[in-house]
Amino acid sequence: MAKKRQISNQEAKLFPIAMPKYQKQTRFLVAVDCIIFGFDGTELKLLLVQRGLEPEKGKWSLIGSFIREEEDIEKGANRILNQMTGLAGVYLEQLHAFGNPERDPIERTISVAYFALIDIHQYERQLNDDYHAEWFPIKSAPRLIFDHEQMVEMAKKRLRYKAAFHPILFELLPEKFTVPQLQNLYEGIFDTVFDKRNFSRKIQSTKLLIKQKDKDKENSKKGAYYYKLDKRRYAANFHAFLNFIPNPDNIK
């Protein structure tokens, strides 16, 4: 019996009727939502936009839109982020797929959520005003549409986990920073308050930071010395920062 010849991609485009289709299967829309965390030296913040279409038009939303037919999800995520905020070159990490059949009241839509960490001052000039992108402190962010608050909560848990076991928090800091800034960041991530003297003592004991000669005098008359991360030592011993994390074994 003669062996059946496979149809080439070119032939499939010319004769689409020859290509088999999955019968009786429901077609879904696929979207991307981006959870962008930023740190301004004082507070941990979340980047939001005002939704431009119904339902919930004008209400605050994560940065998101639909994936195009010709693009993969990661390229779509970067395109959507750039289109809606002006941000480019931001590292995005896939978080989770949200597929509750009722999550979007208009049409069945599966959303793939991504999250990122950035230093706000490094990217603040890139933001455009087309979608009214705005930074909000995590603790006082407005109510979000659909299941976006669930996405943010999951991203916060992932951030805490990665902060505990991976060298990631310094993505949120400028090249040089003060100990109070570092403390503000840890307090924002873990939603807690550290004793200032105890935190400073512990951070110095890690020997992972290099003290600079200049000071930040904008936030106090006395000023606080700047530090830089010793990247070589940090790469080998970043677990020293576990000392600052409350109950790291309970992080999920």
Fold-level CATH name of the largest domain: Nucleoside Triphosphate Pyrophosphohydrolase
Mean pLDDT: 84
How many strand elements? 10
Could you name the CATH class of the largest domain? Answer: Alpha Beta
Q: From the helix content, strand content and strand pairing, which structural class follows?
A: alpha+beta
Low-confidence sequence ranges: none
Annotation field: number of helices: 7
Supply the CATH superfamily name of the largest domain. Answer: Nucleoside Triphosphate Pyrophosphohydrolase
Largest beta-sheet characterization: 7 strands, mixed
Helical content, roughly?
25-40%
Q: How many discrete domains?
A: 2
Content of β-strand? 15-25%
Shape: elongated
Gyration radius over CA: 23 Å
- N-C termini distance: 58 Å
- CATH hierarchy: architecture of the largest domain: Alpha-Beta Complex
Sequence-ordered SSE layout with sheet pairings:
Blueprint (H helix, E strand, L loop, with lengths): L8 H6 L14 E11 L4 E7 L9 E2 L1 E4 L6 H13 L7 E6 L10 E11 H4 L10 E4 L10 H18 L10 E3 H12 L5 H10 L3 E8 L7 E6 L1 H7 L15
Parallel strand pairs: 1-6
Antiparallel strand pairs: 1-2, 1-4, 2-3, 2-7, 5-6, 8-10, 9-10
Task: Describe the fold and architecture.
The chain has 252 residues and is an alpha+beta fold. The chain folds into two domains: 29-165, Nucleoside Triphosphate Pyrophosphohydrolase, CATH 3.90.79.10; 175-250, Winged helix-like DNA-binding domain superfamily/Winged helix DNA-binding domain (Arc Repressor Mutant, subunit A). The protein contains seven helices and ten strands. The chain has helices at residues 9-14, 73-85, 120-123, 148-165, 179-190, 196-205, 231-237; strands at residues 29-39, 44-50, 60-61, 63-66, 93-98, 109-119, 134-137, 176-178, 209-216, 224-229. The longest helix is centred in the middle third of the chain and has 18 residues, at 148-165. The N and C termini lie far apart (58 Å). The model has no long low-confidence stretch (mean pLDDT 84).
